[in-house]
Structure formats: structure tokens, C-alpha cells
Amino acid sequence: MASDTVLLVEGRKAAGERLAPVLDGEYDLVTARTRREALTKIEEVQPAVIVLDSRSVRFSRRRFCGTLESDGIDAPVLLLYEGNEAPEQTGARAYLRHPFSPQKLINRISWLMPAPDGEVLSRGQLSFNVKRRSVTRGERESHLTPKQAQLLELFMRHPGEILTREFLMKRVWNTDFTDDTRTLDVHIHWVREAIEEDTSSPQYLHTVRGVGYRFSIPNHAEEVQ
Question: pTM above the 0.85 mark?
Fold first, then answer.
């Protein structure tokens, strides 16, 4: 993967509306206009981030993202959308609503870029930059404390598994003392605030009563044309 390569997928636009001039000086930019051209460029250059301008392309965004997933391509997709489109159902990793400033677009791409010598974990709509301790969910961006970041990394590396309180206390706080796990509960709450849309009804981080916690990946099944 080219660490600073961005693939911009946008259809035909008036010169003043094109995004390529905004990004060309910031990244090693590659552009595509069609689904077929985009998939070819992805195979050729292995971009770090894919920017998909939903309002200008003429193919299904969800099917495009589904193809990337089935082909094992883990580069995050940033979906640019407008109006009442439901971007969270397309399978894109993050999204940004038109209109936006050039700087906001650049900032959002930078959040998704792997840090130097770092690693980005991606599960569902979440992208977690381990080195920067930053997590993005759709349009939301959050920085985590070291302990919060350790917890989220553990959960994202063990999706679907029940991680016991004893395991988490040992790995994150390096203690076998589990008579009082209020510190763990508070940190779990903070992690949920960073990754969940509604902490009272979590989609990702679930409590397994009397045992611990399980990280699940929501299933985005609804088609968006």
C-alpha cells in the first residue's frame, strides 16, 4: 500500500466543483470516474484511502464497497454525500456531507491515513489508528486515552469473542485484583461514548452480564441504490 496515495472517485463535474485540485497538492492523488476504472486503479496503486463522491457517480455505492470487502481490500472508503442519503448503510468506513470546506475534507482523509509505522484497525464503520489513538465512526472523530485505546484495540482484535473482566484487568491494568472493577466499567463507558451512536443501546460493545464484554460488528444489510 502506498502510504500517501489517495484514490478520488468522482464523475463528470463542472471545473469549479471538482475536488481533484483540492487534494492534488496534499497527497499522491489518483483519480477515476467509473466503477470499473476505480477497481482497476485500486489494484494498480493500492491506495491508502479511497474518496467516493456519491453525488457525482452513477453506480451503487454499497455494491462498490461490498466488492472491495469481498476482494479483501481494506483501504478505508470516505463517502461524500448530500441530502437524505443514508451513508451508514453503504459500507463506507467514514462519510462527510456536502457542503464542506476543503480543509475539512483534508482533515477527514488525514484521520483515515495510517500513521507512520502505525496500524489502522477497521471493523464495521470504525477505523482505529493505533499509533495516534484516534477512532473514527462515520463523521465522528475521537481521541482516546492510553487505557481507552488499549481496551478498544483488544476488542477490535477479538471480534465476536467474550473478553472477561479478569482478562481485561490483567491486560490493561496488569493486575489480578478483580474485586473492584469500577475503573474498568468507567473506561468501557468512555470507549462507548467514542464509538457508539447511542451508548444506551450499543451496536458494537455489548455487556455479557456476570462475565465481561463482547465486541460485535453490526450487519449493514439494507441496499442503498
Answer: no
Cα–Cα distance measured from residue 156 to residue 25, given in angstroms and rounded to the nearest whole number: 34
Cα separation, 125 vs 156, in Å, equals 12
What would the pLDDT profile of 39-63 be if each residue is shown by its tens digit?
A: 999 999 999 999 999 888 889 988 9
Tell me which residue has cell 481485561: 168
Taking the C-alpha atoms of residue 218 and residue 8, their distance in angstroms, rounded to an integer, is 27
Give the Cα separation of 151 and 172 in Å (integer): 7
* Distance of alpha carbon 28 from alpha carbon 4, whole angstroms: 6
Q: Which among 57, 102, 103 is positioned nearest to 81, based on CA atoms?
A: 57
Q: What is the DSSP string of 73-92?
A: --PPEEEEE-TT--GGGTT-
Instruction: Identify the structural domains of the chain with CATH numbers, from first to last.
Output: 5-113 (3.40.50.2300), 140-215 (1.10.10.10)
